[in-house]
Amino acid sequence: FIEAIKREFDRFDGDGSGAIEYWEFCQLLSNLLGVHDPAGLPDNRVRSFWREIDDNGSGQIDFSEFIPWYITYFDTTGRPQGTSPLEEFYKKIRPVPFPICAA
């Protein structure tokens, strides 16, 4: 199981540094979510994911940071069939009220 997660990590560590930088993380998210148009991944959501995964604030993600994040959002074991990998993520986001526009 961990070996499969390590393969995913290595696949997106494009420069082979042993860590995933932000630009690699953006590619990783696009690929894992099947979003081929960058506009389909709002930057604020990507940054929110980044802050969540980069536990130590180093600006890079090491494998120990990647494991729990990947399991939370992309491991399908035990996930109800038909649910999106992002459902848990969106549940954690505080709703932002929008002002009501008067006509």
Automatic annotation (TrEMBL):
PROSITE patterns: EF_HAND_1, EF_HAND_2. One of its GO terms (molecular function) is calcium ion binding. CDD domains: EFh. Signal peptide: none annotated. Residues 1-35, 41-76 form the EF-hand domain. Keywords: Calcium. This is EF-hand domain-containing protein. It comes from Alexandrium catenella.
